């Protein structure tokens, strides 16, 4: 351990930012894969769904101009978010009693289970597949609470920057990897099974991260050197001190200025992604297959999220309200196009999707960066955990909204 601490001392910044980048990547990877595979999961015989660029296409629903699945991909979104909401609602009030190592073990195991259940379950056993999607949701949300809370023990410029960029990379690498492998002819279930190496990366990244005791001792040294030792107990014991339930409730109202923009942005973008993407179908585009169009929409979105989440070191926006305004405008643009079809090319859709991803990633990283700056250190861990609930509620509402909207639009398309 002392040998390892020498490396931590010498390369502290590198260990923290790289470990947090990999933790962000591995934590969100299963969540992204489930959403990227949503159209395939809901399609009949999705395990045999192999598509190549030159394949002759037989459309699933020739009578409907939107080529609709029976179920909206919003149903996958709900399975991928509701368990996460449950854990985010209750975890902030008890999770501090559980050691970080034990939390990480739970995250790694449920992450692994999600890939196994979705990839190995028979295609006609949809409930078992949905259970796998739920496992991905639990893993991602519990992991987010765990690793963001742990980040309060490290420099925010290192941990939050690494985490935000890593979660953005999860979207890009996950969606691109899934789209590329299935486009090359690998079936969706095999593609998902291959992703089992991701939980291993998570475990190794946590092991490489300077441990809690080392991080606390470093904080103590920094405070002492700055002659601010009066505040030391507040910082070092922030994860161990008991705060009453009533005190925690009083911390919530000041967080609304971060939570409301997060809620609105995530509602709008996930309503687009899981409610409207599958209805944005261009029969004459250079990408002929409907499923392929859906997959590459996700890649374009995740590329933009990665760029914006990685931009906090260079671009910081304190006025969070600007993000939901533009994101809700995107909803209007896509909805009206679905009914009136005024976009002549799929490339215009790709461009707007890219803009949508920039807004979503930008709101996320700027909101949590502001929390790490403006909230007192002794309240920061709880505040981050609570604020992360806002985006989950927005995503859940998007899922509930997407299903009836999907059904209504598909019924309209049958006329």
Automatic annotation (TrEMBL):
The UniProt keywords, alphabetically, are: Lysosome, Membrane, Transmembrane, Transmembrane helix, Transport
Query: Membrane spanning segments where?
Result: 12-34, 76-95, 104-122, 128-148, 160-180, 192-209, 319-340, 346-370, 382-405
The biological process GO terms on file are: lysosome organization; regulation of intracellular pH
Gene Ontology cellular-component terms listed: endomembrane system; lysosomal membrane
Topological relation to the membrane, as annotated: Multi-pass membrane protein
Q: What is its main location?
A: membrane
Cellular location of this protein? Endomembrane system; Lysosome membrane
Protein family per UniProt: Belongs to the battenin family.
Protein known as:
Battenin
This chain's source organism reads Brachionus calyciflorus
High-level lineage: Eukaryota, Metazoa, Spiralia, Gnathifera, Rotifera
């Amino acid at each position: 351990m002392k040998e390892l601490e020498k490396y931590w001392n010498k390369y502290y910044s590198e260990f923290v930012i790289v470990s947090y980048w990999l933790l962000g990547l591995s934590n969100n990877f299963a969540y992204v894969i489930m959403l990227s595979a949503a159209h395939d999961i809901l399609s009949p015989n999705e395990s045999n769904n192999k598509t190549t660029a030159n394949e002759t296409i037989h459309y699933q629903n020739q009578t409907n101009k939107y080529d609709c699945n029976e179920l909206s991909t919003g149903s996958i979104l709900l399975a991928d978010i509701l368990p996460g909401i449950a854990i985010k609602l209750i975890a902030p009030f008890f999770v501090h009693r559980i050691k970080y190592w034990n939390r990480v073990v739970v995250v790694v195991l449920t992450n692994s289970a999600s890939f196994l259940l979705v990839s190995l379950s028979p295609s006609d056993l949809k409930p078992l597949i949905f259970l796998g999607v739920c496992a991905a949701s639990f893993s991602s949300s519990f992991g987010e609470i765990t690793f963001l809370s742990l980040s309060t023990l490290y420099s925010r410029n290192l941990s939050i920057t690494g985490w935000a960029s890593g979660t953005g990379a999860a979207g890009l690498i996950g969606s691109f990897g899934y789209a590329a492998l299935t486009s090359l002819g690998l079936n969706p279930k095999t593609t998902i099974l291959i992703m089992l190496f991701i939980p291993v990366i998570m475990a190794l990244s946590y092991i490489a991260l300077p441990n809690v005791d080392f991080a606390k001792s470093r904080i103590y040294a920094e405070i002492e050197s700055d002659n601010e030792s009066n505040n030391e107990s507040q910082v070092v014991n922030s994860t161990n001190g008991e705060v009453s339930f009533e005190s925690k409730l009083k911390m919530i109202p000041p967080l609304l200025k971060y939570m409301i923009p997060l809620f609105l942005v995530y509602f709008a973008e996930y309503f687009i992604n899981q409610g409207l993407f599958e209805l944005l179908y261009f029969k004459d585009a250079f990408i002929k297959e409907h499923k392929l169009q859906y997959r590459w929409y996700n890649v374009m979105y995740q590329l933009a999220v990665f760029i914006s989440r990685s931009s906090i070191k260079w671009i910081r926006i304190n006025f969070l309200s600007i993000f939901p305004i533009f994101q809700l405008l995107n909803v209007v643009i896509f909805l009206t196009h679905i009914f009136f079809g005024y976009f002549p090319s799929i490339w215009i859709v790709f461009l707007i999707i890219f803009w949508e991803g920039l807004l979503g990633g930008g709101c996320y990283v700027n909101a949590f960066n502001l929390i790490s700056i403006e909230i007192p250190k002794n309240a920061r861990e709880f505040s981050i955990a609570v604020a992360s609930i806002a985006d989950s509620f927005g995503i859940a509402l998007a899922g509930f909204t997407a299903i009836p909207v999907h059904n209504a639009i598909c019924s309209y398309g049958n006329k």
